[in-house]
Amino acid sequence: MLNFLLLLTIVFSSHAQKEKPLSITKSKFSDVKVYAQPSTSSPLIMSLEKDEPVDFHRKSIANGGHWSIVNLAGRPGYVLTNELYNEVQPQFSGKVKKSKLKSEVVANLKNLD
Predict the structure, then answer these.
(1) Among 37, 55, 70, 107, which is least packed, fewest CB within 10 Å?
(2) Ranges 14-23, 54-63, 68-77, 101-110: which has the least confidence
């Protein structure tokens, strides 16, 4: 019985689809600098090209919260937050019938009253 449950777990986990991220964080400009610490006087780790994706971790509270912590190849770095942007990813994976969509919109409008 245990072997059967193990087999089911393997089968279902192999068919599980990864969820798309809601957005991807990218650099706004060419030559966006990634620093070792949240300071422009700290060592430079690397520079990013325009629209280069980064693994955004979180905003830093250091130096007035103007820095974001990113991961690059498993290594943390700091980027000025105003040099990053989020590109929203489409989330629809199938077709939506117009009649269903219309009825949902009408229902949502009625709920606003």
Answers:
(1) 107
(2) 14-23
Q: Which residues of 33-68 are buried (b: 16+ CB within 10 A; e: fewer)?
A: bbbebbeeeeeebeebeeeeebebeeebeeeeeebb
Q: Which residues make beta-bridge pairs with 69?
A: 58, 78
Separation between Cα atoms, residue 67 and residue 83, nearest integer Å: 9
Average pLDDT over residues 38-48: 95
The CATH architecture of the domain made up of 21-92 is: Roll (2.30)
Residue 41 pLDDT > 50, yes or no? yes
**Percent helix / strand / coil, the chain, rounded to 5:** 30, 35, 35
